[in-house]
Specification:
This is Protein kinase domain-containing protein. InterPro entries: CK1_Ser-Thr_kinase, Kinase-like_dom_sf, Prot_kinase_dom, Protein_kinase_ATP_BS. Keywords: ATP-binding, Nucleotide-binding. The chain is built from 29 helices and 26 strands. By secondary structure, the protein is α+β, with helices and mostly antiparallel strands. Strand 16 and strand 17 form a beta hairpin. Helix 12 crosses helix 13 and helix 22 runs antiparallel to helix 24. Bound molecules: adenosine-5'-triphosphate. The site of adenosine-5'-triphosphate has 17 residues, from strand 17. Adenosine-5'-triphosphate binds next to strand 17.
Length: about 850
Amino acid sequence: MMIHSFIVARLLPRLAWTPYGQRAATSLLTKPFLALHLKDETGILRAPNLFVVTHEKPNWPGSEYFVLDGKTDDSLRSLTVVPPLPFKVPLYLSVTPHICATFPDVEDSSHLLNDKTYQLDDISASRFLAALKDAGPSIYAPRVTGSDEEAGPDWDTWSGYTPREVPGIIEFGHQVVLFFESLPFDSLTSSFEVSLFDEILLIRQLVLDYSYEGIWRVISYIDDLRRQMASIAASGRIFRSPSLSSGQDGCSYPSFDPLHPSAVALQSLPVIHDGDPPGEVEPEDELADDLRDEEMPVLEMHMAAKTPAVLAEDIRIIALDSNVLIDRDGPLKEVLTSLFPPSRFQHSAEELLDRYVEYETLRASDGQLESPLAVVRDVARYLSIDVEDAIINGALQHHSRPRLLTDAVEVVKAIIEQGHVPIAIPSTAARAAVAPIEGLSLELFDIAARNPPLSWDAILSFCKDSHQISRPTQILVVSSDLYRICESASQAGFPTAFLKVKGSRSGHLSIPTIAPTYTLTQVADLLQILHDPQCAPPPPEPVVDRANPPFRVRDAYQCTRLLGTGSFAYVWNAVQVHTAASVAVKFELIHPTDPPTIPYESAVYAQLYGVQGIPRVHWSGQDMNANVLVMDKLGPNLEQMRLFCRGRLGLKTILMLGEQMLATIEQVHAKGIIVRDIKPENFALGFVEDYRRLFLFDLGLAKLYLDRTGAHIPFREGRAGIGTPRYASHNVHFGLEPSRRDDVEAIGILLLFLLHGRLPWQGICAPDILSKLRRIGEMKRGKPFADLLSQSPAFFTPFFEHCRALEFADKPDYAYLRRLLHDEMDQNGWEYDWQYDWWQAGERGTLLPEEYKLDKRWVEPVRRVLDTL
Ligand SMILES: Nc1ncnc2c1ncn2[C@@H]1O[C@H](COP(=O)(O)OP(=O)(O)OP(=O)(O)O)[C@@H](O)[C@H]1O
């Protein structure tokens, strides 16, 4: 029996077991089992040929089993194994008719396991045994040397297969957990009962289909997107329709201006990892990455405190946030849409307003007073649109006159009628609009000029002096701004009423850090509460996860969960609390000795501002002892997408992605920057509106290749490799300074990887890292690469010929490279329709719960068996 590969796994319970997983877990819990993939004579791996080997005698209904080298039980067919396995206890190799059903012409499973055809060879047998003997589960990985040599015993054991690369297995410390589908498989359980063994088969398929942690991310991304699409479409926002390159739509590329402030800023910073001495190059060892991650200090950040709800029993004063009385958003939208008409800039009024609110909050948290001109300037910068101040001022004067909301006067009147004193929380924007409301106290406008503008102490002392109250609980603060007004008022001990106005964005968020005393859906409800404060029960106290407390950056970005960790940084999922926009916040603790990387990366992003396919930075700077970068949130990366699509992407998807990569890299190069770390993990899909676009991120290794005069950096040799060896160009392996040609070659290698799911130099062994890197370089220059090209679509050959013919300072012919990909699309009769593999259910594509279709090979036999019962 020739073992192709095997997996030893220990099934452990997870928190989110499905009923499906639970059943398997209770049966197999803590019993390691070993699954063999068998090769048949043709050498083709038949995926369904999975056999489970255990120490335990199988007693699953309908299962057949063989005893491996067992002499104990004559009634069982013993499988002769050559050479005999030197273990004492019998091992049972289980087979069920269901497996055989995948070979329609074979009735009996024993045909699959006749002793003539299947034997364990020496190496397999010893590995098999070693793996079973090993108390902790282990994973077999073939050793390939990358040359003709035999791998030596002390060679670097880095195989290129990491636990994460073996489907379904994720390592936690010394144990291995098999991740199962954690989505509810209602359809599966309702349609037929499955035996435990069937479950194992199904689990195997699930493992193949989903497995990794990253796959959860893809599933939730697609799920999220589908849910959000409807609400976005309804909100009037626009799904940005991507275009391939500015070259195609007639605009010119942004070009390198060495005197541009962002270029000057980047030039002034030392380049990170530039020609590090040999030996410091990081291998592509994910395990090592994991270990490094574990050593990272914990990010300790201040969290927004949870506030106690305050019962308003003796409220005397109603403090109204002016946004409850005036329509500020309407006029602002008019200003913004007149400056940036959606027909020209593809931004909806909603989106423009979100940007305005975001920049206003950032400015306020910087202690800068509201200045609509400055805020609109920020919005224009974000959109990469040049607008003169005079034009902005003109638009502001023309449109931005705040108007009273229709029921504002009635609300104030009713408050007065009920014997309360209404005051308006100061806001310069409200000054003119609320002035005409009779009976509304306006004295508080004076404190608007203070910095910070809103001071709850000042409001309290004002009310104490002029209205003889003694406690904050006598003042009810009413606002439609949950986070800026209600939250801070609650924290200061004031009872609050949050008015969830229709369409309010932040009102959709429920971040458990605040406790407004009341939540109202219309102003009229406020009158009811004022009449009888007990009529509306206060909401339950928010539950905050103390082990993983949420925290807020710049009063604006609420971090909710960790998205990922890199070598230097933590990346958190965050929402802009006033606009509900999704962002990613990257943190790096400020360390007394380690050089910071985020300021450098921010400078790179600043230089690439406005480049299509590069995420936009919302804010960067320092907060809470960390360097912080707030940027567009992205979806899953290409590696996750590849795994989601079962290890490989189809040619059409690859061509579409390739064209985008080339379009982006062309623009990045045009801004004077080379990326130097092209890899699937650094390309991610856009989030929500940009879900079809591919983005390049993690630019910590990027560098300016043009100097202050616009001249190309000099050619150098003997440089330490930089980037990721799997995708680096052949030159980088031999110490040549990278330039534009190396970025485009790396894109080619990445496309080959996505197409084949594996590259020949993965998993090779060598005595040490440096010789391994050299060997990979030789493989990239030699026959293995030529063989790879011969098994790949023909356009790859001229693609690499072009990249490799370029001199160091040459500009690649991006249009030519794109045309190669485009012609391949044409030859296959494909349209560039942005329909990637992962959107299509089927052979490769998404298998979301409702779409989950079991492979016929699994379902049919089970159905047939059930039919005969
Ligand atoms: N804008 C983003 N949106 C969503 N997730 C992100 C974003 N940026 C980073 N991430 C997640 O955080 C992880 C780490 O980020 P990143 O790669 O930028 O950090 P790094 O320390 O520079 O990592 P590396 O070691 O790869 O250089 C990424 O793998 C990705 O999962």
